[in-house]
Amino acid sequence: MDVEIQINNSTGANARFITWAPSSCRIRVTNPSGVTSPTATVRLTATSTATGGQLVFRRGTTGPFTNSLTLQLAINGTSAQFFIAGRFGRPSIDNGDITIEARRGTTLVGSVPVMVRVRKNANNLTPGERDRFVSAMAQLNNQGAGRFVDFRDMHVELALGQSHGHPAFLPWHRAYLLDLERELQAIDPSVSLPYWRFDQPAPNIFTRDFFGVADQFGTVEWSPANPLQFWRTDSMLGINRLPLFPTNTRPPGLLNETQTLLDRGSQYASFRDMEGNPHGFAHTSFDGFISDPATAPKDPLFFLLHCNVDRLWAKWQRRFNRFDPAQAASYQNNPSAAPGRKLDDTMWPWNGLTGGTRPSTAPGGPLAASACVTAPGPQPRVRDTIDYQGKVAALSTLGFDYDDNPFL
Fold first, then answer.
1. What is the rounded CA–CA span in Å between residue 312 and residue 375?
2. What is the reported pLDDT for 263?
3. What pLDDT score was predicted for residue 21?
4. Which of the 8 DSSP states describes residue 336?
5. The pTM is what?
6. How far from 369 is each of 16, 34, 168, 185, 293, CA to CA, in Å?
7. What is the chain's Cα-based Rg?
8. Which residues, in sequence order, are CB contacts of 169 under 8 Å at separation 6+?
9. CA 278 to chain centre
10. What whole-number distance in Å separates Cα of residue 267 and Cα of residue 291?
């Protein structure tokens, strides 16, 4: 007997990535040889390397998760549904470091490799995780000739009105990060965006092997093996970033995580003020590209900074249960707001709309698709970014999670 196991309802290798949120899976008998009854009993378990990820199982859309799952499978090939999720606190460090095994009795009848792929604190990445991310970023940039140019052009001076200074600041940047992350995963599916937790010291980020070390003029220097040494934007080689604080400490003046999550209250209308502090303070803790919104994406550190901004929003959402777009507390919706800021508006540049209050170009095209989830679609609306874990509607999940922010 043999079975086929589908992760995220797909047999494709690029769909074998999960987060803390439940993923729908299927299993079916493909070869009933040796089975004489109409059904066969199969037990699902997961094995992993000593430092690898772990996952748990659930039969239906509700109920507790367990370490194993027993299913009755029809031998006529009809699929049975089940769900898996990463075990919180045990994300993967390598692609396929978990194996789901299906056994009939003691006989292995099917298996599939899986990765619990979540966004992690960049300061804590393993050397392998760090190097894969750096390599994917460098390939996306391709010495200034790669796909990254579109992400640079989405965040120039003429486009800042789409992304800053209004309630859609957080939704817009969530879509922006997701688009970039999916492009990186098209290069290396094991990669996820890490975050710079800027309210804590992060000495492992500011090294020549990772995001470089600035000289006295702010010119970032790299190790000979770091492919970011060839980083080029706006026809300019290199990165200018001069820290205004010792990089083995935290930047001064910005709100820490506890202050950000609690002091701004439980309403989105007040929480979004974090655009100023800590977000703005994190940017201006440097001189150079990253200190100015119009040039900040020229420095790839920008994306780690904004990944932490998005993480803080995600943690605030969890703390106050702000996942339902229909609730006013989850988003500050103004029916008379400019296009791209209302809850049901599609967002530039993914909607391809130009002119009027929007820029004259829309670089990048539709938002990149995922092999694991269907949301938010090629033209995301503001509302599509809010229920990112699928807590309100399972199909709303965006396919990312943070290492310190669980689903349950």
1. 21
2. 87
3. 98
4. T
5. 0.98
6. 15, 41, 22, 11, 27
7. 22
8. 163, 272, 275
9. 20
10. 28
| Cβ neighbourhood burial of 246 (10 Å; 0-12, 13-18, 19+) | exposed
Tokens of 187: 């290069």
Closest CA to 211 of 177, 236, 238, 249: 238
Give the whole-angstrom CA distance, residue 76 versus residue 1. 12
Asked if 169 contacts 110 with a C-beta cutoff of 8 angstroms, the reply is no
What is the distance between the alpha carbons of residues 122 and 251, in angstroms, rounded to a whole number? Answer: 16
Number of other residues whose CB lies within 10 A of the CB of residue 339: 15
Instruction: Judge contact between 17 and 115, C-beta under 8 A.
Output: yes
* Three-state SS at 43: strand
Question: Is the Cβ–Cβ distance between 70 and 117 less than 8 Å?
Answer: no
* Residue pLDDT, tens place only, 78-95: 999 999 999 999 999 999
Residues 6+ apart with CB under 8 A from 204: 122, 123, 124, 125, 210
- Phi, psi (rounded to 5 degrees) for 371: -80, -10
Enter the tokens of residue 385. Answer: 């970014």
* Cα 202 to the center of its chain, rounded Å: 20
What is the rounded CA–CA span in Å between residue 20 and residue 17? Answer: 11
Taking each helix axis as running N to C, give the angle between helix 127-141 and helix 169-187, from 0 to 180 degrees, rounded to the nearest 10. Answer: 100
Distances (CA, A) of 285 to 198, 245, 307, 314, 322: 10, 7, 17, 23, 30
pLDDT of 275 higher than 90: yes
How confident is the model over 153-175, as a mean pLDDT?
A: 97
CA distance 401 to 391: 13
- Of the candidates 297, 351, 303, the one whose C-alpha atom is nearest the C-alpha of residue 205 is 303
CB-CB contact of 59 with 31 (8 Å):
no
How far apart CA 400 and CA 176 sit, in angstroms, is 13
Instruction: State the burial class of residue 213 (Cβ atoms within 10 Å of its Cβ: 0-12, 13-18, 19+).
Output: middle
pLDDT, the chain, mean: 97
**Which segments of 91-243 are extended strands (E)?**
98-104, 107-116, 213-214, 220-221, 232-233, 236-237, 241-243
